[in-house]
Amino acid sequence: MLDTFTIPTQRTTASRLAAVDFDQLEFGKTFSDHMLVVDYHNGEWQEPQIVPYGDMTVSPANSALHYGQAIFEGMKAYKNQQGDIYIFRPYDNLSRLNLSAERMCMPAVPEEIFMQGLNQLIRLDAEWVPNFTGSALYIRPFMFATDGMLGVRPSDSYRFMIITCPVGLYYNKPLRVRFEEKYVRSAEGGAGFAKNAGNYGAAMYPTKLAQQEGYNQLIWTDASEHKYVEESGTMNAMFVINDRLITPALSTSILDGITRRSVLQLAHDWGMPVEERKVSALEILEAQANGTLQEAFGVGTAATIAPIATIGYPGQDYTLPTPPADAFSHRVSAALAAIRSGEAADQHGWMVRV
Ligand code: COI
């Protein structure tokens, strides 16, 4: 990454790094020492700043709190074997952030603020990037409305921030999921493709009900018929049936996952047949019954490649065979890990050095 300008930085005088147990990281609970903050008002982005991570004040009438004008991204930085730090596909996250911003009537974040912010912030907190297997520095860029007003209209002012946290695995064992037949994550024409806070808040109650029944996550189905697979929890869903990789085609109700894109690209590179299309719950269950469903897994930045062991459908659980060592999900997971650690060539230019 190039230094295009320098963001003023106030360094912490009390680093929390020495107190962190990197073997006991719980996802999203341990934050690195610094954060990026930049405000938008009078139709312009103001000068960004890097400051010590900490609380901030907002108006109690802050319109993001009342009406949910808030969006975010999830991305990861990795340390390679030489100790150099790379971010995985940050430009893809920037374009998705700005797509979400457009959908939520928010201003686009300029590339130089996003990229220079990442560059300086991660260099400053370089010692927070873990380098054990399965670990990464999780990066959370986000933007929210800052007008203090209760009228329902887009805010005039916003804040864009980046916070980071060292993380290990999001899921540490194969998942039990079930098809959702009553609640809906998003409908065609809604904001399901955007990474806006409300999509996640509204998913919590149905997910809680599934968790009370012993599942880890839901597989969302379409809003009109509850027939077709949409996503699984915080991930895109993928299936291997008859040696073909099948995943729901993108629509306005499905998030265009960057791990999804990467997995599809590797499958294409390896000559594996890939189908992006409507896939029904019934098709999955029939494939399970006739033995052609070889693998099911979720893919996402936080979750990486998360194998699914059991799929529930009202009244019954269907257990999938344990994928063999050379199964696609294992190979693609290892291939992505090798690209991230620098052991394999980065043929698609996904890794951006800080
Ligand atoms: C991610 O995978 O980065 C996500 O945003 C999912 C979740 C942690 C909200």
From TrEMBL:
One of its GO terms (molecular function) is transaminase activity. The keyword Transferase applies. Its cofactor is pyridoxal 5'-phosphate. Pathway: Amino-acid biosynthesis; L-leucine biosynthesis; L-leucine from 3-methyl-2-oxobutanoate: step 4/4; Amino-acid biosynthesis; L-valine biosynthesis; L-valine from pyruvate: step 4/4; Amino-acid biosynthesis; L-isoleucine biosynthesis; L-isoleucine from 2-oxobutanoate: step 4/4. It comes from the Bacteria. Belongs to the class-IV pyridoxal-phosphate-dependent aminotransferase family. It catalyses: L-valine + 2-oxoglutarate = 3-methyl-2-oxobutanoate + L-glutamate; L-leucine + 2-oxoglutarate = 4-methyl-2-oxopentanoate + L-glutamate; L-isoleucine + 2-oxoglutarate = (S)-3-methyl-2-oxopentanoate + L-glutamate. Its EC number is 2.6.1.42. It comes from Hymenobacter glacieicola. Acts on leucine, isoleucine and valine. This is branched-chain-amino-acid transaminase. Keywords: Amino-acid biosynthesis, Aminotransferase, Branched-chain amino acid biosynthesis, Pyridoxal phosphate, Transferase.
